[in-house]
Amino acid sequence: MAFRIGLMGCGSVADFGHLPAIGRCSEFELVGLFDPVRGRAASYSAKFGGRLSPSEPMTS
Known about the structure:
Structural class: alpha/beta
Oligomer: single chain
Number of strands: 3
Strand order of the largest sheet: 1-2-3
């Protein structure tokens, strides 16, 4: 069973460090990405997988 990972913040460290490391580790599954710049999160979602998290506050 894999640990499910959601990443908050999709800057350059995520692109060259965190996301490739998560992808190489079979014990982890990337399930979500969030960044205030939605286009950056969308780009990394296409490159590494994982769903986009809502960028707007969630209300009930």
